[in-house]
């Protein structure tokens, strides 16, 4: 069985804007899914905002190994219950790859705990994403940098926590820099944020960008069994302690009682 | 002007339970506030759950440098709007010190982005909090370890992100270990989580614990002006770019338009 | 081809001390090698201090994927040239697993850049190594903690840099704690320090400890091609810059000249 | 008493090259020292390579709080014993600020444990050092970026460990990026690497660069008493353990014996 991968897209720009539809006729998710399918070890499907539960019912998420997330103008329309469900699956071990304007998605802000704000400019300028960690699995098969002829500028400061690893740093023609590839871990789940990928440019057709996405899915995949009780805070009774223990002092809790949350 | 410090307490156990009231007659917040006032450089006040807006209206938060947070059984009663307000102030530069059972507070989970779960046992066992980073400002004036005769056990795994720094690691009589002093930064705000401090034990009367709290307030204080627009994502028009830039390619946005959130 | 794994041991205690020889008749390296061979994907051999170049000539290191290092009383006898050679191979991508008293080996201190000092006691006390990052590949197949009936105590502070990840934290019967499993990256090479494993106790016969060692070899293996010029600092001439560039200002260097080191 | 600050310079280019002497008539160290003296809280002196013990005898280092290091063409002439002495003082708590070509100094490589290699080009191109962590004490008083009209390009990958914090990221006219301001801790000592500062350009006369240097000295200063035994590994005898302990099992060491190193 391959790595069960779901590409999520809000799928609005492609239906409303001719330029975007011209670049991504089936939607950004289909372009990305096709790129991922070049790796025969990935089982790729898609989900979009307009579907019931945004295409991410609990049962489906429960058998998803890695989720990619592209959203932009409709972050606010994503149901909070679905966001919590995705977060819980990340804690349990599902990988998450957040793309471009997904920096402001509810799920990314939920997992970072920060504003995830940045500076931006849509002027079709040149971007060069340098590989600063060439030995990282996500950079496998790349040269020193990815050249992107037309990109949206994202500039620092980028309000995220210090990452586990910095994989890419981008140079922009207009004079800015950006930490464009960052890794995190939250619970058992690995998270990769990747900045290149604006809807009005053909960035997801770029072979290097597609290589990054395939690498990232394999990197984010945690083969361990789902850690289903990751959010629980179990009581360890004194007579189950690993060392012999006599209870002392006062207590608010009765034996076996659940803790407060 | 001193460091404007607010000690927040849900203030329920002390009014409902004789043991807790006996240990902390004025409430845990008053014991902590008195300890902090031993540092003449701190301007200390308190706030509690039952007050309007939990004692944390926007105006007061706006002139708070460091906030300490103690909560346990009423995390769910804290208003989400107040939680967001506190989070925004942390991003702007307010320090936050989260105490003991505050690991499950809304504000700590909000800023960590993880479940913040752990294992626990209330058996009055011995805890020894080792200083693993003796040169850290928070450990100033301490010996190799803080001895706590009776403590609630908190055990690993503790579901938080890898910290910026690990300051304390605790040993428990029943056989567990815990990362009991951890630092983080979120936006311009410094965060310190400190595990010792259960309501049924006199831990906040311990001189070493009080030293830690005073040190932590000074460490968490960011003297920089508040970063009030930290959560904004401003557009940088092409003609304001630091390098000369000619716009290219298609665009969804009109000049000067705000980005999506 | 499997992961080419070399187990290095100074191999002195086993020849000088009856207790150690009784526990590890062929040497600690042979016990570890046998444990690793239970994973058919590993090609395991050994090397020891008394061999020419300590069994680690350049050619052999060049085809080693992961090196395990056990040393104790003869750190000072390890040739500096061999240490530099091993360091360079780590930078190029070779994994390194440093065991127990190897905390004071030249190679570990070389790669950490810190004293690597700690507190210790050889009293055969109980150790419990808690898994604090259960989703980490190195912890695969373990329960919540590894119980070690007799161990040498290693206590904090442990003078190493903040790790990339903390995988294990140990509890000791005598009252100390220790960060007993830590990961680092140096250049393209992954490093894992694992504390359990004293020569006068049968720790390397423990099934859980053996599981950790097998997991660690797989985790430390970097399948990328060796980054052979990782230590070079190449000049990028102005006419090879990715952006058009006209040289300006004064210069100390002539075109094409090598930089200073 | 102010923060005792020593500016170290190899002081060769200024005596050999007219351009450099024109920019820094008294040597780079005097320009930097003058800039630091604008902060009355700093007690600033200088030291250079040609002095006995490079101006850094043990007694002087012992009363130095923060050391700045500028070297380029004579890294190899720095005595290894002085390097070890500086490293030990960093572990004890002395702050260290490594400047520009000091990336290849013995002391920086010693403390990083990595090659510290990078790409470079001396073409007088424009550099823009963006502040990515505006709330960091080192960035106090700066705008969004430092503009440097003529700079030497340093490009990624920069072979250092993942930093504690990334404070500056630089954009170069020729198309590269670089992590130009990084913090580390080693033992009790704080380390800041700052890339801008080439000898053939007047970078150390730039007001923003001077602000960074003053801020960095204050940030790197650790007011705690020197941790003089930071590199020791003391034995904790079983009868001095904090928990009651009966020795068990075999032992190589006699009671009170020093450990191996």
Automatic annotation (TrEMBL), chains A, B, C, D:
Domain ThuA-like as annotated: residue spans: 7-220
Domain of life from the UniProt record: Bacteria
InterPro entries the UniProt entry points to: Class_I_gatase-like, ThuA-like, Trehalose_catabolism_ThuA_prok
The protein's name: ThuA domain-containing protein
Protein species of origin: Aureimonas populi
Lineage, opening ranks: Bacteria, Pseudomonadati, Pseudomonadota, Alphaproteobacteria, Hyphomicrobiales
